[in-house]
Amino acid sequence: IMLLCPPVTSQRMQGLLLLIFAKYFHLPFLRGVQTETTRTGLGGYWGNKGGVSARMSVYGHTICFLNCHLPAHMENSDQRMEDFESILQQQQFEGQAATGVLDHDVVFWFGDLNFRIDDLDMQVVKSAIDNNKFPMLWEKDQLNMAKDSETVLEGFQEGPLKFSPTYKFDVGTNTYDTSGKKRKPAWTDRILWRLRATAPALGAGKRGSISGLTSGTKVTQHYYRSHMEYTVSDHKPVSSIFTLQFPYKVDIPLVTIIVEDEWNCVADAIAKFKMAPNFSRSSWDWIGLYKVGFKHHKDYVGYVWAKQEEADFHRQEHEVTFTEEELPKGSGDFILGYYSNNMSTIVGVTEPFQVIITLHCFLEVKTMKCVLS
Question: Which PANTHER family match (predicted)?
Fold first, then answer.
C-alpha cells in the first residue's frame, strides 16, 4: 500500500486501459511523459486489438510501458507477432532520446497477448495442469517458442509460469471452458520486460529473477502470479511486482519548495521556492496545498498562482502566501506541490508538514481585520 499514489498518465483504446501511478516524491523526477495508441483490429481501423503505451524519463532513465491485445485463436501465432512488430513500428515518441518503444532503457510489455499451447491435446494439457507439470507446457507455449526464432523478441524476459493457465474459464467459476468450443487452456495473459544493452545474466536470487544493464540498472521481479478468486471474466488476472534500481542521472527537482515544519496560524502560510536554471516557467503555474493521501494534481485543498513578475527575473528565490480562504479549517498532514502548466505535471514537492490552524486563530485574524478597517 503506497502512502501517496497520484496518477502520472493514462491511455485508453476501447477495452485497453493503461494507468500509471507514482508515489508523490517521485513526481518531480518523472519527465517527458508521452502516450501512444495503435489500432490493429480490422486492418488498423478498429481498436479492439492493438496497443497503448506510456513512456517517461525516471531519474534520467527512459522507461516505456506497453499494453497489448493481440489476435486470438490457436492458428494466429504468426499474426500475433506481425501485429506486435506493427505496433512497435508505429509507436514513435517525440524527442531525441528513445523515439521508439525498444529504444528505452527499460520496457514492460504486458496484456492479453493471446499466445496458446501448441501440439498437445486438451486432455494432456489438463492433466499437466492438475498435476502441476507446468514445464512440459512451457515447451509448447507459442510465446516461449517464438523467443527462439523472432528477432524482435530478443532481450525480452519473463518470470516462470508457475501458475495455471489463465484462459479460458466458464464465467463465474474456476472451471476451464465447458462450452461447445472447449478452448484449450493457455497462458494468454503475460507480463514481460526488456533491458536495452543487457549485460551477462546475473542469475536468480532467492526473492526473484534479476537482470541488469551495463549502466548499472537492475530489474528484480519479486513475484509473478494469477488471481483465481476473480470470476467475472473468462480470463484470470495476472500481476507482478518489480523493483527497479539505477544510479541517479537526475536528482535535483526542477522546482525546490521550502516550507516550515508547521503552520500554526494564517501568518505562517508562506512558501518559498527556487527553480533550476533549465526550467521553463509559465504564468499559469501554481502551488497547491495537498492533504497527505491525494490522488490527483487537482485534489488540492487550496492553491496560489506562482505568477512571474518582471522583478522576478533576477531573483533566485521566490515567495507565495496562502490566504485564509486557501487553508483547511482544521489540522492535518499536508504537502505543497508546484504544478507546471508547460509540462502538465507536478515538478516540485515538499516533505509532509503539519497544518494546525484552529478556529480561534481564524477568529483572531478576522478581528484584526475588523480593527484595521
Answer: INOSITOL 5-PHOSPHATASE, PHOSPHATIDYLINOSITOL 4,5-BISPHOSPHATE 5-PHOSPHATASE A
Contact 185, 126 (CB under 8 A): yes
Largest interatomic CA distance in the chain: 89
Residue 264 sits in which domain range?
Answer: 255-366
Q: In 3-state terms, what secondary structure has residue 168?
A: coil
Q: Are residues 58 and 189 in the same domain?
A: yes
Q: How far is Cα 227 from Cα 267, in angstroms, rounded to an integer?
A: 52
Are residue 241 and residue 262 in the same domain, yes or no? Answer: no
| Beta strands 262-263 and 286-291, pairing class | unpaired
For residue 236, is it within any domain? yes
CA distance 242 to 245: 10
What's the structural domain count of the chain?
A: 2
- Cα(326)–Cα(370) distance, rounded to whole angstroms? 20
pTM, two decimal places: 0.86
Are 236 and 166 spatial neighbours (Cβ–Cβ below 8 Å)?
A: yes
Cα separation, 290 vs 59, in Å, equals 23
For residue 121, count CB atoms less than 10 angstroms from its CB and return exposed for 0-12, middle for 13-18, buried for 19 or more: exposed
Q: Are residues 180 and 215 in the same domain?
A: yes
Q: Is residue 234 domain-shared with residue 326, that is, in the same domain? A: no
Q: Which three cell numbers stand for residue 355?
A: 497544518
In this structure, are 239 and 266 located in the same domain? no
Q: Are 40 and 83 in contact (CB under 8 A)?
A: yes
Each residue's pLDDT tens digit, 224-281 = 999 999 999 999 999 999 999 988 788 899 999 999 999 999 999 999 999 999 899 9
User: HSE of 306 in the Cβ direction (CA atoms, 13 Å)?
Assistant: 28
Same domain, 76 and 218: yes
- Tell me the three state secondary structure of residue 154: coil
Please tell me the distance from the alpha carbon of residue 287 to that of residue 1, in angstroms, as a whole number: 26
Alpha-helical regions (H) of the chain: 77-90, 122-130, 134-138, 142-146, 359-372
Per-residue b or e along 19-36, where b marks 16 or more CB atoms closer than 10 Å to that residue's CB: ebebebeebbbbbeebbb
185-223 tens-digit pLDDT: 999 999 999 998 654 444 444 445 666 665 688 999 999
